[in-house]
Structure formats: C-alpha cells, structure tokens
User: What shape does this take?
Amino acid sequence: MIRFHNVSKIYNKSGKALNKINLHVKPGEFVSIVGQSGTGKTTLVKAMIGEERVDEGKIIVGGWDITDISQREIPVLRRQIGVIFQDFKLLHKKTLFENVAFAMQVCGGKPAKVKKIVPHVMKIVGLKKKIKNYPQEVSGGEQQRAAIARALIHRPKILLADEPTGNLDSLNANEIIDLLLRINKFGTTVILVTHNREIVNNLKRRVITIDDGTIISDQAIGKYIL
Amino acid sequence: MFLSFIRVIKFSLQDVSRNIWLSLVTVIILILALFTVNMLLTVKVIGDMAVEAIKEKIDVNLYLKPGASEDAILALKTKINNLNEVKSVEYISNAQALKNFKEKHQDNPEILEALRELNINPLTPTLVIKPENLDVFDNLINRLNALDEDIVESKNFTNYKALLEKINNITNKVTKAGIFLSAIFVMITILVIYNSVRVAIYTHRRQIIIMKLVGASNWFIQMPYLISSLIYTFFGIGAIMLIFYPFLTLLQPYLEAFFVGYNINLITFFYGNIFTIFGIQFLAAALINMFASLIAVRKYSRV
Assistant: This one.
C-alpha cells in the first residue's frame, strides 16, 4: 500500500528531517509511527500526502509513484488518503454535518449523494444526533469524530492520523482509537502518528519508531520504546 | 462541472459579502478609475465634435460692392471656383442676404424695426467660399488676398486655423493629463484588487487548508477569488453607468451654452454607443482585475 525507498528530506545543513527511510505498509495494516517531537513524524505524513517534497528516494502510494507528483495530481492523491490532525481542522461557522458535507461539495459531489452519504458516515462515527451542532458546541472527542467522518467521506484506502488524541483526555482518546480500529477492521489501512505511550502499548499492533529522522525500530507487535 | 461552477460562484459571493467593507473600498477605487477614463473619453469626444463642427463651418466671405453687375460677379465666381484650393463657391445676392438676415433675426423685433427704418438694403452681395480642406486654408487666403478685382468691397478672413489649432492643443493637453491620471488609477486599482484578494485569502486560510486537505482541485480553490474580481468589475461598471449619465445630463446645458450654434450632444453620443463604450471598459477592467487576482491567488493560496 505504501512504500518508502531510501527517502531523505533535508530542511537545513544542520540535520536531516528524514534520513534514508525504508518502510513498507501492507494493505489493511494498522501501523503506529512513534517518536518524540521533532523527530520527523509529521514530515513523513506530509510526504505521504504530497505536501512536502523529498530530496532523495522514492515514495509509492497504492502503486503510484508520488515522489515528483504534480500540483494537478495532488487533489487526486488526497481523495485516496484521509487525514486527521490534532487540531481537528473544522470550520467553526459550519455545523458538523456541513463540515463533513463540505469535503464532498468541494470535490464536486452532487447534493443527492451528499444528503445520502454524510448521515451514513456520521452514524458510523457515532455523531448521528449531533449533526446540527457547531464544533464549539461539542466535546473535543466529538470534534475529532467529525474530522474522521470528513476524512472517510471519499472512502479512502488509507487513513492518516497525525496525533489524533493530542488534544483529548484519556477517555475521549480511547474512544477515538477504538473508532480507528473499527475503521481498520473494514479494510482501511490506518497509520497512526503519536507519542502517546499508553495508547501504543495497548494497541498491540505494528510500531515503527523514529528518532532523529531515522527508523530505529520496526516491530510487528510493538511497544513504545523511547 | 456545472455544479462545481455554481458552488464556485456561491463561495465567491460569500467572499464578497463577508468582506463587505473591503469589497466596497475596492469597488469605489474601481469607480474612480473608470470615472477618470470616462472623463478622458468625454473630453476627447467634445474635442472631436467641436473640431468637426468648426470644420463644417469654415468658409471665407468675399463681400462685393452693392452695384456690381451680375455678369462680373458670376465671372469672379467661376474664376475662384477654378482654384485648386476651393471646394465650392456660393453666390448670395444682396436680396438673398437680406432674406437670410430677416429669417435669422425674426425673433428680434428691434433689429427688424431698425432695418425697416433704413428703407434700403444695407447688405452687400457675397461669395461664400469653402476650402478643399483645412491644409490648403493658408494658400487659399493668400490667393484671395492676391485678387485684384474692382467689385470686391472687403475681405473677411476669420482665422479658423488658429482656432482649430487651439482646440486641438487643449484637447491634446487634457488627453495627456487624462492618460496620466487614468494610468495612476489603473495602478491603484490593480494594487487594491491584489490586496483585497490577499486579505480574502488570509480570511479564508483555514477553509483553503481544509479544501486542499480533502482533495479540492486547485481550480476550485482559486476560481472564487477570480470570480470575486469579476463581481467587483460588474458593480464598478454598473455604478459608473448610474453615475455618468446624470453627470452628462448636468454637463450638456453648459456645453450647449459654450458651443452656441454647434451641434454637440454628449448624451446622444453615449446613448448611441453605450454597449461599445461600457462593454470595452468592462472587458478591459475585468482583464486587469483578473490579472491582479491571479497573481495574488497564485502567491497566497499556497497554504
């Protein structure tokens, strides 16, 4: 599903954000990428969605070499990869329903399709009763659920979660991880970027550990080792 | 595609309405620029009309002695008509001159009464000479001055050429000043539109990030800002049409008073050419505004 071949990214002369990264994520896998702040985790995510160009190596997503992806092709890639962030990135002047629908509307989704699919996805993430609420009227966990619903709206093969629990208490954080596991069960490849030790240790899934831009550990059923 | 286009227009209208003060300032600057351009056009039209009207009226009057015989007058008419510089010669007898005079002053009983008291025809026969064109006017005057005919009483050669040169001179100076002013306003418009789009993008920064994140095409992200610049142009042109016609209506009586006896009608000209004048202005303003928007969008929508 995702392959990194000797990928390096240099921001400045003092060091490499990514240093000869080699990794292979198979379809349907649930992979946690862990590491401390500033170790290159977010650069890795940005490289996967074409937001950051790498200086060396090759990145292949779903059989598509995206190393030198053009500006015109980036939207096509983004519809195949759902992304969620620590800060949810919701529009505060839109309801949760409108936030999710927005993702379909800006990609040309027809109103009838929007009306049919959005409530269905909202139900999957457990927000059926909150569709008319604005982001500021719901909890952080519910905001993240809405962000997940938006990320799932194009039925992506990959779901990238960059510190999705960073702004949540442990109860909400566990609920979000449960939701990600359920999505993974449906066949979506999930890549979870986090530095939450407890979550990673409880998952008992593959863990890739990055330190100073280099993969220092890749365990099939791993633990947070830093 | 059609649905996306409708959504682009919707986003664009939202952009204009949510930044209403900025939109208002942009449209006002655009109106100022368009007003200057239209003033320039007005001056040019008045200048051209005045020159054409004066050209039509340019003639040289050769006043003949009252007792000159008809044969001698017709012989002189033929002689002048044969000159290369002459387009036509019209003979107005003293009787015809008196008739024309009375018609011209029919509303002035004092003049008519004075004429009646004179009891004679004080007007002389005249040869009205039209030059072939304005370039040969000086030559014609020289030729007529060189005429040595007994029947010629006086020669009245108004210096029309100097008058035309004066009008052309004023028109050219005003045109130059107008072009300079228009250029300044066009530059200001470009900067204001550029800044409006920049601020609009900054306001919608979060929305643009999300749009990019969920896979909206660059076209879909950038297009609303280009449409916004078209909306500014549309309102600018609409406003200038609403402002300029009343302005012309106010100006027209002054023009008529200034150019007495000449047919100079700006309102008719602007009404007759409404689609050409404002259509071209819309196209030009739209192109300039979209150009400014495109640069701003390309530069600032990379979030």
In short: Chain A touches chain B at residues 49, 71-72, 74-79, 83, 89, 91, 102-103, 105-108, 110-111, 150-151, 153-154 (CB under 8 Å). Chain A is about 30% helix and 30% strand. Chain A has a mean pLDDT of 92.
